[in-house]
Amino acid sequence: MYQMLIDGELVDGSASLEVINPATGEAFATCGRAEEDDLQRAVAAARNAFPAWAALSWTERSVYLNALADGIEERGEEIAQLLTDEQGKPLGQARFEVGASVAAFRYFSAQEMLPRVVVDEPTSQVIEHYSPVGVVAAITPWNFPLILLSVKLAAALATGNTVVAKPAPTTPLSSLLVGEVAAATLPAGVLNVIVDANDLGGLLSAHPDVAKVTFTGSTATGKKVMQSAASSLKRLTLELGGNDAAILLDDVDIDDVAPKIFNAATFNAGQVCMAAKRIYAPRAKYDALCDALADLANSAVVGDGHDPATAIGPIQNQMQFDKVMDLIEDSRQIGTIVAGGQRLNRPGFFIAPTVVRDLPDSARLVQEEQFGPVIPVLAYDDIDEVIERANDSEFGLAGTVWGKDVERAVEVAMRVRTGTVWVNKHLDLRFDVAFGGVKQSGLGREQGDDGLREFVETRVVSVAKA
Ligand code: ADP
Questions:
Q1: What pLDDT, in 10s, does the model give residues 436-464?
Q2: From the alpha carbon of 167, which atom of ligand 1 is closest?
């Protein structure tokens, strides 16, 4: 039985949870689960641990965080295997996620935030100091359970906050292993990892002793977090949904771009907040792109993440599987499915990569976030029109522009209203570059200087000198 981490102790908690392998649809492990009492103990432990942790120097905290990184690295293969078991992703990608998580702790623990002298005049000196906010609740989803947790923990802990982490109930195990490593490397209470049955998020994000919530998940749940956080005016970082447009310009080489677009849409079985979710091609290249994407979909190897041949794994859970299948059925009525369009004839939550053409912009698959390997391909006639259609969304997370004339592609990118626009590439995320959404895709940024700033309060000390 995998255990939770509360106040430095590995504990079973008051309840338990079965974890399902999405490649089989069967439960394969059991873990401890929290009831309200356990959550209260976790928040109290984080609160008690806060003053001493905040009082350490940056360098002292980074020694702890590097020990945590080393511990995760030592158990890296075990964590990667478990990540594939619980999430479904190909093992190579799980290993990459473990490596990135180790790197996140090492990177953020090296970004010391020094006080900044803002004014230094004969009569006055003003210095900005950065102090941690307190107890941070880190709430994570099931698509990238480990790296999303690690980026939050690394930034929160390095800046001197203590944390209660709550993974998604369908992918708790990799987070619990981080908790096991933390039990041996961090002071008690600095990090607590609890599991729920999708029932404690509201309590955690409304808790009066939680000073900040850093959340990654759907826009709908993000709104609930914002409401719960209002009670004590908590600090918030929300990384929410996206409906990213990929805009192909008329000078693209379809053979070159199609595999990149396919990957941008189907990486992690399309369960990526910044996946390419609507593809816009110039009308003259529309048929060629649809055909190329259909060929790629038909030849993609879909299977168990433990099979080295697998490129695309299962959908992570039954609920999401049903949602994606429903979008496919809706699209079948109003568009033309040119590849896929069905589940695989085997146990587990597998969906054949699906390409849909001839949909109206009003189609649910175009308007909503599909979060699955289903690609709507749309035709456009001129640039102003396609930019308007791309921007006509409540989401504003990211997007891509593809074109041989890079200057022109950048001009188009500058008109796309999202937090990130990639030109001729996708998914280039870096610890030193801020990522986040505009509109209903979120609030605040993660990573980069902006991301670290979200975990501190600015304290101004203004001194009369003469
Ligand atoms: P998805 O699983 O589709 O990403 P969610 O946004 O529902 O969707 O889940 C993200 C995380 O938010 C999960 O850890 C989930 O348990 C948690 N969560 C669910 N409801 C709430 C809530 N009311 N407040 C805070 N967190 C919640």
A1: 999 999 999 999 999 999 999 999 999 99
A2: 14
